[in-house]
Amino acid sequence: MPPRTPKQRSAAAPPDLTREAALGPPVCGIDEAGRGPWAGPVAAAAVIWPAGAVPPVGITDSKKLSAAARDRLFDAILAGAQVGIGEASVEEIDRLNILRATMLAMARAVAALPVVPGHALVDGNRLPPDLPCPATALVKGDSLSLSIAAASIIAKVHRDRIMAAADLRFPGYGFARHMGYGTPEHHEALQRLGPTSFHRTSFSPIKALIQNDY
């Protein structure tokens, strides 16, 4: 097998704090969870690793981790980092649109931090307006920045727990299994039961169901 190129080695490397160190503390990483689902809020988290902190091993893009690993790292991140969590509600998603609601959730996460960051690293290619500090958008940031990767875990676990609670409020939809995403199970439940107040009526599949009287 030929040796990997430097580019391939870089792509395989876990996220680290290189970018945070270059910017100087305090730098927060920001990520979101729940832009695509048909139901539930969109959540965001902002994470700052204090100087001298030793982040737990295994932090990476939340989508690459099992639910058990995310839960374990969620607790470890809360114990070792400064964390802010923000949400935008279903009503706000429907009123503002999902992009603007996501930016709002990110801004709320930064506002919830115990300190004002000197710089923010934001996963993706868009920046929330009105942040209290300069910011840099970082495509695939959850695979590059340890702060963003940690934020992705916090946001994902926080939102999953909201959806698990919604499963008790709205039985029959399977929210605890699909987390509001557009799975066949979710679609079948919607056709059978109709949408709830927890569904995003601005999203095309839900809007179509309402227009067709389910």
Entry summary:
This protein is an alpha/beta fold and 214 residues long. The protein is built from nine helices and five strands.
Would you give an account of this structure?
By secondary structure, this protein is α/β, with parallel strands linked by helices. The chain has one domain (6-169): Nucleotidyltransferase, domain 5. Helix content is 44%, strand content 14%. The chain has helices at 6-12, 18-23, 67-80, 90-96, 98-111, 146-169, 175-178, 184-193, 204-211, and strands at 27-33, 42-48, 82-88, 119-123, 135-138. Strands 3-2-1-4-5 form a 5-stranded mixed β-sheet. Strand 1 (27-33) and strand 2 (42-48) form a beta hairpin. The longest helix has 24 residues, at 146-169. The model is unreliable at 1-9 (pLDDT under 50).
Which key terms come to mind for this protein?
214 residues, alpha/beta, Nucleotidyltransferase, domain 5, 5-stranded mixed beta sheet, 9 helices, disordered N terminus
Assigned CATH class: Alpha Beta
Helical residues, percent: 40-55%
Q: What would the principal axes of the Cα set say about the shape?
A: globular
- CATH architecture tag: 2-Layer Sandwich
* Major β-sheet profile: 5 strands, mixed
Q: What series of H and E elements makes up the topology?
A: HHEEHEHHEEHHHH
Classify the fold: give the CATH topology: Nucleotidyltransferase, domain 5
H/I helix tally: 9
Integer tally of domains: 1
Low-confidence stretches: 1-9
Widest β-sheet, arrangement of strands: 3-2-1-4-5
Radius of gyration: 18 Å
Strand content: 5-15%
Question: Care to count the β-strands?
Answer: 5
